Predict the structure.
Amino acid sequence: MGRAPCCDKSNVKKGPWSPEEDSKLKFYIEKHGTGSNWLTLPQKIGLKRCGKSCRLRWLNYLRPNLRHGGFSEEEDNIICSLYISIGSRWSVIAAQLPGRTDNDIKNYWNTRLKKKLLWKHRKEQQQALSNGGNNRAVKKESNRESRSDSLSFVPENSTHHEQLYNWQQMPMLPLQPLPYTNQSPSFNNEDSIKKFLRRFYDDNYHPTLDGLLNHHEFSNGIYKEQVHMVSSSACISNSNINNNEVQYSQTGQYGFDLVQGQGSTFTSSIEEVVSTNTNNYPQRLDGLEFFYGEDIINNKIMGSSSTSCSQSSNWGETNTQIYHHHPLVSSNYQVQGLIQETHNNVFLQKFSYREMQ
DNA sequence: AATGCTCGCAACCGCGGGCAA
DNA sequence: ATTGCCCGCGGTTGCGAGCAT
């Protein structure tokens, strides 16, 4: 006994949507909403489509504020780090990337991002071989990947934004040299991909957190300031609130210290840090919205999921807290701030610190 | 110019979970 | 507690555009 079909399959249209169908669906939903029943919706509109097909079309294509293509470097990093943390839960990953659909991210991962990582891995292998190896097969494959990469990510008429796709221009994490192996990494399953990805992030992978530290660096010649984001599956929901992450983060919580150093006074909030860096290194702020939140970059409050973080602000609401003195940081570093957020059941930690040079 | 191949993306499909009766 | 229905997710497929031969 199979499941009863959701609609009369012989009486519904399949395949690409016509502009007329799109406008019918869009017009109706914008005016009346979905009526919380997708299956009956096509009949109301007069569309010969399955309700599920309507839902998919609306969510993935027609609904407002969607972005297609043009994934940024930061989005790449978020996708990679979340993939490591939580696997192929595309809807959860999509929830962290405004305007992106789970379908888009899934396609992007399967068709480009995975290959991009593989290509980089192979390039490193080839470099390791450069002293002695002259493997024609590797060379041929490498040429093919290079060509493919240049066409896919850095077209000749690309804009600055598009050029962010060029691996060589990406501010990569410090990489461990990869030992040469005759075998390319196999991407047969999720675990092998995660394992492979971690090779790129070994320096920044934190076993206790089971998370990835996304890494951005500012340097003014005196101090090095590093900003990390941790996404962790270990604290995936509030029910795990007692695990190590939260417990140790609670030492010295709430607020920031003023930190003195080499004639400079560090500011007391990330908001001010952003402001400082905007003045000194405005070019490095581009694309950091994912870390600070659009509201901070734009100096305005846009929503509840990401909040500004001044000391006296309304930070305590629901899932967001500020901490300092993160135990990961040694005496050579001074923590600037730590933010913990929960977005759609994904736990995120963001912290910044400065390295005393 | 014609044909075959590859790639990217939109859409489909089946299944599991949640919820109400 | 059980059943049926719907929603949403993730894996898969099919098609069209662009590229290689």
User: Anything to note?
Assistant: Residues 4, 6, 15-16, 36-39, 51-52, 55, 59, 88-91, 102-103, 106, 151 of chain A lie near DNA strand C (CB under 10 Å from a C1'). The radius of gyration of chain A is 24 Å. Chain A has three domains: 9-62, 73-203, 207-356.
